[in-house]
């Protein structure tokens, strides 16, 4: 472990201490004031332990602590205090609510699947080519090379791009409906919501699609549990499932790494391992080095050009590049990375004080959503879901630069309003913990 990384690891106890303090004060990890520092305890400290040779300066840890304080202050203010105000009597889902979410889930899975088919056919690949594992590996590599190597990044077919939000709407609704429904068939369908995103990852060898889906599913799941007064996070079932899921996703990403090299040769797993470790844990080194360079240069905020890259591209004002930033940081492992976390866009656009103000606003919005959902006002769920997704994606980049993901959260908001004004008859459900 390098000297800077050792110092950062020692300082990270302050981040852990703040997370514990917020958990004790708010009474639950689901309050954004506690959720943000908890998430960054994992995303910020794990690289120091699992990738010890990659140097991380104390500047990155100091930033995480200050950023956590900003989000926590905003979260407490939005909640109107530390503790949640919960309804004495829970409001179960109504028949129409279940029908609306169920219909949207099924439609989203179908349209998300069509998006993949359109992408495949638009790329000139016969569907029969993906039915054989060896041919599928070759096809995945061909699509990867065509997108990133031969002619630069190519835009997907228009139909595929138009239907892409449904790829992510399916898991966002699936996580919500998983809590609302008790029937095993429906719970299975809620897990089936990942299929379109998994297909995107297989065809395009991009891990982001699966990670997006996991984040959106979990955001909907936790927000809906809060609605029914279930504020626990580290339960035994959750920990068991998290362990199994981590193993499955890791094996899957190893397979995707081999597919990028058009190979099924397991002797190449060491190469894939280095790439996965770099992707998963390189962000702290990358952000630390960039932050050191930023603080040594004159202040020149870009005023939203990065934070709003998606909308600006859609409006024709600029073109967004893959990975958001063209410059990369070389790592000790021999790989390079341009994963600067969500903090670079905020700091680069608005300066350090401005970025902290944005994070405090994020905490306030999340705290407000938390208070409303805990009090039984389900129409505020999109505020909380948007906050959870932003926090969980922050180790990679700013969530809202992606138009398809922004559209997904907006769609959840429309569904919540629709349910509010067209609730129907209440269903009788048992109140014990599921």
List the defining traits of the structure above.
434 residues; mainly alpha; two-stranded antiparallel ribbon; 16 helices; disordered C terminus
Question: In words, what does this structure look like?
Answer:
Helix 4 (95-122) runs parallel beside helix 8 and helix 6 packs across helix 16. Strands 1-2 form a two-stranded antiparallel ribbon. It has helices at 3-26, 32-50, 58-79, 95-122, 133-150, 158-180, 184-192, 195-204, 208-227, 236-260, 269-281, 283-295, 309-314, 343-374, 381-393, 403-421; strands spanning 329-330, 336-337. The radius of gyration is 22 Å and the shape is globular. The chain is mainly alpha-helical and 434 residues long.
> What class, by secondary structure content?
mainly alpha
pLDDT averaged residue by residue: 87
**Total beta-strand segments:** 2
In whole angstroms, the N-to-C terminal distance is 43 Å
Beta fraction: under 5%
DSSP helical segment count: 16
Adjacency order of strands in the biggest sheet = 1-2
Radius of gyration, taken over Cα atoms and rounded to an integer in Å:
22 Å
Order of helices and strands: HHHHHHHHHHHHHEEHHH
Choose one word for the global shape.
globular
Fraction in helix: 55-70%
Low-confidence stretches: 428-434
Note the main sheet: 2 strands, antiparallel
Task: Please render the helix and strand layout as text.
Elements: H1 3-26, H2 32-50, H3 58-79, H4 95-122, H5 133-150, H6 158-180, H7 184-192, H8 195-204, H9 208-227, H10 236-260, H11 269-281, H12 283-295, H13 309-314, E1 329-330, E2 336-337, H14 343-374, H15 381-393, H16 403-421
Antiparallel strand pairs: 1-2
């Amino acid at each position: 472990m390098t000297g800077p990384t050792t110092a950062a690891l020692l300082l990270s106890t302050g981040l852990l201490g703040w997370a514990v303090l917020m958990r004790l004060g708010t009474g639950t990890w689901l309050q954004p004031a506690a959720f943000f520092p908890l998430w960054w305890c994992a995303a910020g400290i794990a690289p120091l332990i699992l990738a010890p040779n990659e140097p991380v300066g104390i500047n990155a840890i100091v930033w995480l602590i200050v950023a956590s304080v900003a989000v926590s202050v905003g979260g407490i203010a939005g909640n109107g205090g530390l503790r949640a105000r919960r309804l004495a009597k829970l409001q179960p889902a109504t028949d129409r609510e279940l029908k609306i979410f169920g219909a949207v889930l099924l439609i989203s899975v179908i349209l998300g699947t069509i998006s993949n088919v359109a992408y495949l056919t638009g790329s000139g690949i016969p569907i029969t080519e993906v039915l054989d594992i060896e041919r599928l590996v070759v096809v995945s590599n061909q699509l990867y090379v065509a997108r990133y190597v031969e002619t630069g990044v190519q835009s997907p077919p228009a139909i595929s791009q138009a239907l892409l939000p449904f790829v992510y709407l399916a898991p966002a609704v699936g996580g919500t409906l998983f809590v609302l429904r008790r029937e095993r068939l429906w719970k299975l369908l809620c897990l089936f919501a990942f299929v379109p995103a998994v297909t995107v990852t297989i065809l395009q060898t991009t891990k982001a699609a699966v990670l997006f889906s996991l984040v959106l599913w979990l955001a909907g799941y936790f927000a809906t549990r809060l609605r029914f007064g279930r504020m626990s996070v580290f339960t035994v079932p959750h920990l068991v499932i998290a362990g199994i899921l981590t193993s499955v996703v890791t094996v899957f990403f190893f397979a995707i790494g081999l597919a990028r090299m058009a190979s099924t040769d397991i002797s190449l797993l060491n190469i894939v391992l280095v790439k996965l470790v770099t992707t998963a844990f390189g962000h702290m080194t990358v952000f630390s080095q960039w932050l050191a360079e930023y603080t040594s240069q004159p202040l020149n905020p870009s005023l939203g050009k990065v934070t709003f890259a998606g909308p600006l591209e859609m409006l024709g004002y600029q073109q967004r590049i893959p990975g958001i930033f063209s410059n990369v940081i070389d790592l000790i492992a021999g790989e390079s990375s341009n994963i600067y976390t969500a903090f670079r866009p905020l700091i680069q656009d608005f300066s350090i004080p401005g970025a902290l103000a944005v994070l405090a606003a994020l905490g306030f919005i999340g705290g407000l959503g938390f208070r409303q959902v805990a009090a039984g006002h389900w129409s505020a769920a999109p505020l909380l879901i948007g906050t959870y997704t932003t926090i969980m994606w922050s180790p990679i980049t700013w969530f809202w630069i992606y138009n398809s993901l922004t559209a997904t959260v907006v769609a959840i908001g429309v569904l919540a309003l629709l349910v509010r004004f067209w609730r129907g008859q209440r269903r009788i459900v048992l109140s014990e913990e599921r």
